């Protein structure tokens, strides 16, 4: 190659050509450094014919490449995946490529990095800030920037600690090998149903063909053990496996189970990794030495050298939908990656998405069912609590039947779980005297009171203020009232009802790191907790044999708002949280508090009629031509200037294509009309399946200009609206 067409890591640029200097050798996929203006920039060499429209420039006018990085080239299937993702989600190639390269620092530099750790020396006269940072850092080790983040201080404070000798430098190799999971380490005997399912997956792995399987097993049916057999087969074939989990809080228990089965942990990948770990994992993945990778959705774009299996666990989870930057759905991209890599993809779920079921009906995905729980455990008994007949006491949220069941459960020494999908103490705080309501200054959202931290917080932008003692408007003291419940308030009610019970609150505020999540699992499994009060975080994956009672505090909460997926999400969440009850030898009970026991979702839940729910939901989607039958794309226009945002949205709307089978709704104010100080307007495009929605939106938007302060982003297959 004497010239190379590159995608550079700059989203504003299209592909560009460079000259390959004599003596340098590159191929498609090579990761190179190229000059861009006065600065060097990372890019990847692409097959020139994939981008035929790049204007041709004479060889003598091309700038030469500066160097090739010492890293394996990105494999062709990954390059095809990057192209597909960019085209499907209407994102710049560079933005997708950035996910594959994970961070440029994962590639640059040598095979060691310098990290710092507490030296144990006792320097004199530490400032209070430095002392506090040191305490927060504890035993940890990392780059200056990473320690600053842990200590919640600036880099300068960390450098001060280094100078004083409180932190010492250590050289960390990023080239250490990972241990290899052993497929025969501790094989377990499967139930006949599991065995049949596992055999089928093993065949798929052996065949090395692309094929998507829905592993549809009720909660507690032992899906993990089943796909572990497929992983074992991939290991025997010397192919890599990627396991995607929806939540980093679930990684820790997964690692334990994996280690018990395979003798060592898999390679983890998530946003919380230290840079040296990230660099080490990236290389091991690219070189094919990482046998099994477990990670968050971002692990999908890594350069696996020989992928043999992809598992998406809890595949229905909404957290697989990325809502910033490249707005992709990891479940769908996983299926596409399986196609590119010629390997099977397993979607495991007790409550598959309507879209996934539809693919099964069309015969595109194979379905493997595990209809009963492992070890003969029964699914829990479901009891509806009609709040209009059995209301809680005034200012309380737990109705008498649920309280009674909690009392019985406590008396038996068993555990209860209360589920309410709302963080904090109360979703709204107002002044009883003048009616003032606390609103976020940056968003059209109420500030949520958090009593544990004594702060009011916006759950959309993170803005926080200390909870004031008096009303900022009328200055009346003791006039602020909390309206509605959050998990902290439910926990207070539990403490008032059962003062001797040990209560744990589980939300992203309390379980923000894998270590905290691991501690929580240990506490519950070890019997140190009687009652758990939690948000959707507790609905997922956990297995606690002594947990026999689940209370759904407000089953109707997710149903308002007219969201397309409101019923489906409510159904999935309640089935999942119910699935935490009675997983061991003791039978479980679930109390569902609702004001609408006759709503179709509630009826299906109370009668345990899964098929009825799916049939009704599918029919209603079909009649609305909603996904999976029709398709949507949302165009979101935002600007700090309200008038400019509205004006641009109107212009985009006015230029909208008119076509049979395509409708454009709006522009209208987005459901969250102001977010982080930006005013947001939204257009919703609704199209028949047969229409090339992406091509239409691309052509439409490329004909319009907007001010540089305005942001226009497209969400293809938007998740909630
Ligand atoms: P699911 O993911 O389907 O809800 P899990 O995979 O968590 O279910 O399995 C439920 C419980 O049953 C777990 O504690 C798991 O270890 C146990 N289990 C499942 N299959 C087996 C097996 N074949 N042998 C022993 N224990 C099993
Ligand atoms: Zn007031
Ligand atoms: Zn806000």
UniProtKB/TrEMBL annotation:
Chain ranges of the Helicase ATP-binding domain: 204-370
UniProt: Zn(2+) 2 binding residues: 440, 443, 458, 461
InterPro entries cross-referenced by the UniProt entry: DEAD/DEAH_box_helicase_dom, Helicase_ATP-bd, P-loop_NTPase, PriA, PriA_3primeBD, PriA_3primeBD_sf, PriA_C, PriA_CRR
Binding site for Zn(2+) 1: 431, 434, 471, 474
Record SUPFAM superfamilies: P-loop containing nucleoside triphosphate hydrolases
Bound cofactor: record note: Binds 2 zinc ions per subunit.
Record's keyword annotation contains Endoplasmic reticulum: no
Enzyme Commission number, as recorded: 5.6.2.4
Keywords: ATP-binding, DNA replication, DNA-binding, Helicase, Hydrolase, Isomerase, Metal-binding, Nucleotide-binding, Primosome, Zinc
Cofactor: Zn(2+)
Superkingdom in the source lineage: Bacteria
GO molecular function: hydrolase activity
Catalytic activity field: ATP + H2O = ADP + phosphate + H(+); Couples ATP hydrolysis with the unwinding of duplex DNA by translocating in the 3'-5' direction
PROSITE patterns linked to this entry: HELICASE_ATP_BIND_1
Subunit structure comment from the entry: Component of the replication restart primosome.
Function: Initiates the restart of stalled replication forks, which reloads the replicative helicase on sites other than the origin of replication. Recognizes and binds to abandoned replication forks and remodels them to uncover a helicase loading site. Promotes assembly of the primosome at these replication forks.
Family: Belongs to the helicase family. PriA subfamily.
Protein name per the record: Replication restart protein PriA
Gene label: priA
């Amino acid at each position: 190659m004497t010239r190379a067409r590159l995608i550079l890591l700059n989203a504003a640029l299209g592909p560009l050509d460079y000259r390959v200097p004599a003596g340098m050798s590159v191929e498609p996929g090579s990761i190179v450094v190229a000059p861009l203006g006065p600065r060097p920039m990372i890019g990847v060499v692409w097959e020139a014919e994939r981008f035929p429209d790049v204007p041709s420039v004479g060889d003598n006018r091309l700038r030469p490449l500066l160097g090739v990085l010492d890293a394996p080239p990105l494999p062709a299937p990954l390059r095809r995946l990057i192209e597909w993702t960019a085209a499907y989600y209407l994102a710049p190639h560079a933005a997708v490529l950035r996910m594959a390269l994970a961070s440029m620092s994962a590639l640059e530099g040598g095979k060691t990095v310098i990290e710092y750790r507490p030296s144990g020396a006792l320097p004199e006269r530490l400032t209070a800030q430095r002392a506090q940072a040191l305490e927060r850092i504890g035993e940890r080790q990392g780059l200056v920037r990473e320690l600053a983040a842990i200590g919640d201080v600036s880099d300068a404070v960390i450098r001060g600690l280094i100078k004083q000798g409180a932190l010492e430098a250590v050289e960390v190799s990023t080239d250490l090998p990972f241990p290899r999971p052993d497929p025969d380490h501790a094989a377990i005997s499967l139930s006949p149903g599991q065995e049949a399912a596992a055999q089928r997956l093993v065949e798929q792995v052996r065949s090395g063909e692309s094929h998507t399987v829905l592993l549809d097993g009720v909660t507690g049916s032992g899906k993990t053990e089943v796909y572990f057999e497929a992983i074992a087969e991939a290991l025997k074939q010397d192919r890599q496996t990627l396991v995607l989990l929806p939540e980093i809080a679930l990684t820790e228990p997964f690692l334990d189970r994996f280690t018990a089965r395979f003798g060592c942990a898999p390679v983890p990948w998530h946003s919380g990794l230290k840079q040296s770990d990230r660099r080490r994992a990236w290389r091991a993945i690219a070189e094919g030495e990482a046998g099994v990778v477990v990670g968050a959705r971002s692990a999908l774009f890594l350069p696996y050298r020989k992928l043999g299996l992809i598992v998406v666990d809890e595949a229905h989870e909404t957290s697989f939908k990325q809502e910033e930057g490249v707005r992709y759905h990891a479940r769908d991209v996983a299926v596409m990656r399986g196609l590119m890599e010629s390997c099977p993809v397993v979607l495991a779920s007790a409550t598959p998405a309507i879209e996934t079921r539809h693919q099964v009906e069309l015969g595109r995905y194979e379905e493997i069912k595990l209809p009963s729980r492992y070890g003969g455990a029964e699914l829990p008994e479901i009891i509806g609590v009609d709040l209009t007949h059995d209301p809680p006491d005034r200012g309380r949220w737990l109705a008498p039947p649920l309280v009674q069941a909690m009392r019985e459960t406590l008396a038996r020494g068993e555990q209860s779980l209360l589920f309410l999908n709302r963080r904090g103490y109360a979703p709204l705080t107002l002044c009883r005297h003048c009616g003032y309501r606390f609103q976020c200054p940056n968003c059209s959202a109420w500030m949520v009171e958090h009593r544990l931290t004594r702060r009011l917080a916006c759950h959309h932008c993170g803005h926080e203020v200390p909870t004031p003692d008096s009303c900022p408007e009328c200055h009346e003291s003791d006039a602020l009232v909390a309206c509605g419940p959050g998990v902290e308030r439910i926990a207070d009610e539990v403490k008032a009802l059962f003062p001797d019970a040990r209560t744990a609150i589980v939300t992203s505020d309390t379980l923000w790191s894998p270590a905290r999540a691991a501690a929580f699992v240990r506490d519950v499994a070890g019997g140190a907790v009687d009652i758990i009060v939690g948000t959707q975080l507790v609905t997922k994956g956990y297995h606690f044999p002594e947990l026999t009672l689940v209370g759904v505090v407000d089953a109707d909460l997710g149903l308002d708002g007219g969201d397309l997926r409101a019923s489906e999400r409510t159904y999935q969440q309640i089935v999942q949280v119910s699935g935490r009850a009675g997983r061991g030898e003791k039978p479980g009970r679930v109390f569902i508090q609702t004001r609408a026991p006759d709503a179709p979702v509630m009826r299906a839940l109370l009668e345990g009629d899964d098929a009825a729910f799916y049939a009704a939901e599918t029919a209603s989607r079909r009649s609305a031509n909603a996904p999976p039958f029709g398709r949507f794309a949302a165009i979101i226009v935002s600007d700090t200037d309200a008038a400019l945002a509205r004006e641009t949205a109107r212009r985009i709307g006015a230029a909208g294509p008119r076509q049979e089978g395509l409708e454009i709704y709006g522009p209208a104010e987005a459901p969250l009309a102001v977010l982080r100080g930006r005013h947001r307007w939204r257009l919703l495009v609704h199209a028949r399946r047969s229409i090339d929605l992406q091509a239409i939106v691309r052509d439409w938007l490329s004909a319009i200009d907007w001010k540089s302060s305005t942001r226009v982003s497209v969400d293809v297959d938007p998740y909630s609206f």
